[in-house]
Amino acid sequence: MKKIALKAVAMTILATSLTGCIGQMGTSQLVTKVNLSVVDNRYARAGLYLLLGPVYGIAATADLFIFNSIEFWTGRNPITGKSPALADTPMNAVIKVNGQLGSDLSTPPLASVRNSDIEAASFNQLDDSTLEMNVSYTNGETAVLRGEKAGDNVNFYLDGEFITAVSVDELSQYARNQA
Hints:
Blueprint: H1 2-17, H2 26-38, H3 42-51, H4 53-74, H5 103-106, H6 111-114, E1 118-127, E2 130-137, E3 142-150, E4 153-158, E5 161-167, H7 168-178
Antiparallel strand pairs: 1-2, 2-3, 3-4, 4-5
Helix pairs in contact: 2-4
């Protein structure tokens, strides 16, 4: 029994040490989104959460060992598509660790891979509340990303299909973090 417990502890330590586990937990977010969109009653959502317990466990495990590791090493979460990686997001840290590091040691090592398939991008302002970005890829494909301001939000569309809505405050904060 002691031998089995020792092996389990060793495997757990080894497995968690091989992953960049800090991340956006994109798969878990998708499961939560499904749970919240199926019903609009808090008690039904709680019941569905209990039924989806194993799914939440699988999603969290996939995030921990696969998707958050990919996010850590590439700088972009493969499920949410968001970047920078959570590990690279500027925060007011309690402990500052060597602020003298060069950018080659403080950016994701594979960050250049993220945009390597984009050949060109151009912006067009269609009106006071609409901005369009035309993207050309190296394989000849093109895409159009359009942002439309609607009140305090900006609705984003990719090739005419709604993707997401982001608040103007969130976009401003993101722009400050990128500067």
